[in-house]
Amino acid sequence: MLQTHPAGYDTYSLPAFAAWGRWIRVVPCSQAGDKGISSLSQQLGPHESLKGEKDARQNGHEETDPGEDGNDQEVIVIQDTGFTVKICAPGIEPFSLQVSPQEMVQEIHQVLMDREDTCHRTCFSLQLDGNVLDNFAELKTIEGLQEGSLLKVPFPLPYTVREARIHVRHIRDLLKSLDPSDAFNGVDCNSLSFLSVFTEGDLGDSGKRKKKGTEMEQIDCTPPEHILPGSKERPLCALQPQNRDWKPLQCLKVLTMSGWNPPPGNRKMHGDLMYLYVITVEDRHVSITASTRGFYLNQSTAYSFNPKPANPSFLSHSLVELLNQISPTFKKNFSALQKKRVQRHPFERIATPFQVYSWTAPQAEHAMDCVRAEDAYTSRLGYEEHIPGQTRDWNEELQTTRELPRKNLPERLLRERAIFKVHSDFTAAATRGAMAVIDGNVMAINPSEETKMQMFIWNNIFFSLGFDVRDHYKDFGGDVAAYVAPTNDLNGVRTYNAVDVEGLYTLGTVVVDYRGYRVTAQSIIPGILEREQEQSVIYGSIDFGKTVVSHPKYLELLEKTSRPLKIQKHKVLNDKNEEVELCSSVECKGIIGNDGRHYILDLLRTFPPDLNFLPVEGEEMPEECKKMGFPKQHRHKLCCLRQELVDAFVEHRYLLFMKLAALQLMQQKANKQESSGALENGASPENGTADSEKSESEDGKIDDNVTGLDQVKELAETIASDDGTVDPKSREVIRNACKAVGSISDTSFDIRFNPDIFSPGVRFPESSKEEVQDQKQLLKDAAAFLLSCQIPGLKIGISELITRSAKHIFKTYLQGVELSGLSAAISHFLNCFLSSFPNPIAHLPADELVSKKKNKKRKNRNLGNADNTAWASMTPQELWKNICSEAKNYFDFSLECENADQAAEVYNLQKITLLREISLKTGVQILLKEYNFDNRHKPTFTEEDILNIFPVVKHVNPKASDAFHFFQSGQAKVQQGFLKEGCELINEALNLFNNVYGAMHVEICACLRLLARLNYIMGDYSEALSNQQKAVLMSERVLGIEHPNTIQEYMHLALYCFANSQLSTALNLLYRARYLMLLVFGEDHPEMALLDNNIGLVLHGVMEYDLSLRFLENALAISSKYHGSKSLKVALSHHLVARVYESKAEFRSALQHEKEGYTIYKNQLGEHHEKTKESSEYLKYLTQQAVALQRTMNEIYKNGSNANIMPLKFTAPSMASVLEQLNIINGILFIPLRNCHFCIKTASEGAGSSEGTPEHL
């Protein structure tokens, strides 16, 4: 079994999720503090479950059809019926707890440590009938544990040094549980969430009680000025509104380790474990001894050591109990703090699997924190002191998890859970190590070499820098190629891991960009450091194809990957002109480790090259490429096609293959009808009869409305099965189609690429000449397909192009900056990039602490070649000239601007958006305040505005394959209209996702979103609200508070709030979504039309007609711009505007807009379409109302106050009609179908999209 970090150091604490506990054995959960929440979740305040389903048990999985494939082995029931136990702990009333047999004893520990009334205890055991339970035992293995069993927490256990430290850490976590500083600082997988600020707490039961019924309560609908259509103000402070709970009640002034630690020998023999120093809010200074019996006051002061107990000593088993006795303020405030803590939604508290960094943060006071200090100088820089064996053997852990059995669903869940957990731990450790390397805190293993050539080992992880240290990439672009290679390699690792061939191993790989440097972190192959690389490599090449070797075992393993990865087995020549067979690129190296495992590494050429950026002498490119000026010279030769492009190209070729074959078959059929009865190809009578019978049966099938494509599919399958029943003519059809599309087989569609084609230095044998030519043509076709089919579907984002170019320059710029000058350098760069101030001056750091004479002699440990102060001479003109030059050289795009002001004006860009983009891309964190970019008399940024620089981390994201399969099956069912069945499958997918990933993950977010949509369509509005609330919280936590997906989640939640009659909350959420859209994209974005239509409709519903019109007319203008004035979206927009004018009794305007809509419907859909008829009816109604109003007005003019006026009906729109319109604009159409409940089309969300990715966002 694997060992892992103690939960306090973990990426996230294992006991946090019941899913984790079943396989990985960890140190006791009592270290987890508040970082984890157990899935034994009755105790989590008002929230009953961390999982997204109402009825599903926490960890059992009901039997469900996992798809359509009918594989009996898959139908496995993991059905452990939950049961209830009673917990009896000292000082509290016994309480009931529902548990699952698969959960562990330590998860009950975690529940007790999370409960408000028992959270202050950490060192205790659980007993059943007087027997102490093993923390790591699964509940199902405990004899006598059953429904109604009583678990007792007897008199607390004695402390050890370790348990005492865990206790102090836990109390610190409880004291900090509402403090967001860890989230702002990007530590311990904490991240931000602001949903509760806009919903004023939870939307669950308390939310339902808050607003019940449809009465029009008095609500302030006025949006903040800066989000109104047309507003140019883009305040930054609104991005992170200050939460009331973030100014927590102060419980203590100081809690820290005493300087008298560790206890001397004689005190150890009295049971002293460690000493603490505390200053209470009342300003009382006390020294506390942590002993085996508990905590008590001693007589030491800051300057004199007297460890004897004070009088009174207040001996208590818990530090909280002791502090309660000596500080009334602590007692009162700690209790209030815990009440608030347990009221927060669990998703606000659980740690995320990977760290999310915030690009802005408010100014925060740096408080004393003993745990943070201990972490900084122990586990974070060298060793993990709480772990048996000190450091983890990452490679062994990563490979052992992959070797776990996977024959059935329970085994696969255990395996995938272990893989994901170890991987997230490895990513966190690799990130810490990479930062330590760049910050100069790790000694190199080759310290005598030049700085950029140095390599490092930290915590059993190997670190190398992105420089071309030994001219390895000389022919590929030098340092530029060396910088690109790690990400290509990571993509290769990701792909081979996804194929998951048994017996083939890849290295744990993480790529970290930090302070302008690229660091590759890899797990270490056993024995690799003890021998030369030339001796180790038994497959592939270490010199880009000059010397090449192969190995039968590697060929056997890699051949299993060749079909899914579309890699062709091929032969190359080595330096002795011998043929060597490979099933990968030559750069892919095979090394057998000392552990006997077959490793592959250097997977940078897994995908075929992009010939558009690889000019090859003597090679003619397709016409489509030449027309657009390709091929173009690029600064490196490692440009390759993305996996998505390869898949799209193969799919495109497959459709072509099917159409060609179908066409030929139809021609054959026509020919046969003309000359029926003739025997073809000199076949024997027997064969002829068989063939004609086959043809008749095929013809029959065509007559039975089976398309030609289906016929081809069946024919291809028959040929592939090689049963000899197919006539030669049909074989010829398939052979021709195969040849036409470039298939490597002539009996079935099978497209594969040779990754070594056009690779410098690689030579092919004469015998492969024809095959190589075919492969060259295939690559040229793929390059042309990219330009003609894929790229036209993409929009060029100018802001993306500018910020990427700026990032390239910033990388080099930062390499010449010493640590002491970082904030000055970054603020100067941002001033040059974004400020209107024409000549910002960089403030070189004044090194008052070192005399100038000594300063000159200091050794420059700079990794780059740049001068330490060269960055200070940069000017805005120079930077923008470089940005334009970079855009042209790298992206071949000509920017028509010389500074930030011109860029903003010419391309309609926002400087705040550019600031966000460059900060996210480079890891810079800036102070949360309002920046004046347009001041020409003062620079925008100062050194004090740069708070931090974070790493930008790229890593493999292991998948939960079975859960994803269920999710896709559920989506398919939903699209077919079987909502109930789809809902069950999605629920099961959610269950499995939770099992593998724990409670927080982007795929769980997609699951919750779809569940909420289904709940809403099936009429369960409150459940839709509950699931969507979780989706929003999770999206904020795992993607970021202003991520495009988060904006969409806010919009969906607003719809469900409106349906639940929570009108003011719905508006608050829509206003938040609009603010985020303005900040991230600006107003000129197609998705803004949908958002403004939503806001306008809700405002219409609450009778804020003028405000409503501002948003709806803006939506109309945006829709007209992006979809054309004659599109159906514009017609709908006209109708929505007309409805508001009708409510205002401005019938002329209403008629004008509805006529526009009617004309579009009539032209696009025809007079008899339902939409056209509806519009026509509405026009008649508006005309009648207009006439009635005119009559009334005439009567008033004629008779004055004596007029006999018929009352006109001006009614507010009903909530039902507003909701109906909201459903329409959000793409939810209810269409009754036979044999099923409903069919839905989710145009805005794309229910068919596996990732749930929004179209425009």
UniProtKB/TrEMBL annotation:
Outline the segment boundaries, as ranges, of region: Disordered.
37-73, 204-228, 674-705
Q: Which CDD domains match?
A: CLU-central
Polar residues biased stretches: 674-690
Could you tell me where this protein is found in the cell? Cytoplasm; Cytoplasmic granule
The UniProt regions of compositional bias labelled Basic and acidic residues, in chain numbering, are 48-64, 691-704
Asked whether the UniProt record includes Cytoplasm among its keywords, one would answer yes
GO molecular-function annotation terms?
A: mRNA binding
Signal sequence, renumbered to the chain: none
State whether keyword Chloroplast applies: no
InterPro entries on file: CLU-central, CLU_dom, CLU_N, CLU_prot, GSKIP_dom_sf, TPR-like_helical_dom_sf
Q: Which Gene Ontology terms of cellular component type are present?
A: cytoplasm
Keywords in alphabetical order, please.
Cytoplasm, Repeat, RNA-binding, TPR repeat
Annotated coiled-coil segments of the chain: none
Which BP terms in the Gene Ontology apply to this protein? intracellular distribution of mitochondria; mitochondrion organization
Q: Which residues are in the Clu domain?
A: 372-614
What this chain does, per the record? mRNA-binding protein involved in proper cytoplasmic distribution of mitochondria. Specifically binds mRNAs of nuclear-encoded mitochondrial proteins in the cytoplasm and regulates transport or translation of these transcripts close to mitochondria, playing a role in mitochondrial biogenesis.
Entry similarity comment: Belongs to the CLU family.
Name of the protein this chain belongs to: Clustered mitochondria protein homolog
Species this protein is from: Buteo japonicus
